[in-house]
Amino acid sequence: MPAKEPGLRARALRHLARREHTRHELAIKLAPHAESEAELAQVLDDFTQRGWLSEQRAAEQIVHARRGRYGPARIRRDLELKGVPSETAAAVLATLKGGELEAARAVWKRKFRAPPVNAAERAKQARFLLGRGFGSEVIVKLFRGVEDGDE
Questions:
Q1: CB neighbour list of residue 66: distance below 8 Å, 6 or more residues apart
Q2: Other CB atoms within 10 A of residue 132 CB
Q3: What is the mean pLDDT of the chain?
Q4: For 69-128, what is each residue's pLDDT tens digit?
Q5: Residues 43, 9: contact at Cβ < 8 Å?
Q6: Domain 98-147 falls in which CATH fold?
Q7: Helices 136-147, 100-111: crossing angle, 10 deg rounding
């Protein structure tokens, strides 16, 4: 006798037991297993109403996981890709602004460990930090501090 396929609710609970998901992520994962869009929407609405599915918690988890390696611009993009509403993303990202310079300094130290010695190396380091989502004003402050010996 073949094993019975788990239901849509069971699949959703298994995904949520592993980590927080946004509604968008969970809908994508469950769509191939749903009989109709209405069934999928009903399960997602039920889980949201019960507090099992939360955009806020998912966004906070994403920010917490990425804050040591990426800047606010990169994290904002990741939140958008995962379907976090812009107002939720803005509220969660507001917590990052205070420590952006320290985060950039930590990422820079792990990668380079020494201040740039010429313009080409400075540009290379700046491009790396821009790619990680740090703003140009933060990068300028970081390089000023590094060159002044404030590491």
A1: 74, 75, 78
A2: 20
A3: 89
A4: 899 999 999 999 999 999 999 999 888 777 888 889 999 999 998 888 899 999 999 999
A5: yes
A6: Arc Repressor Mutant, subunit A (1.10.10)
A7: 60
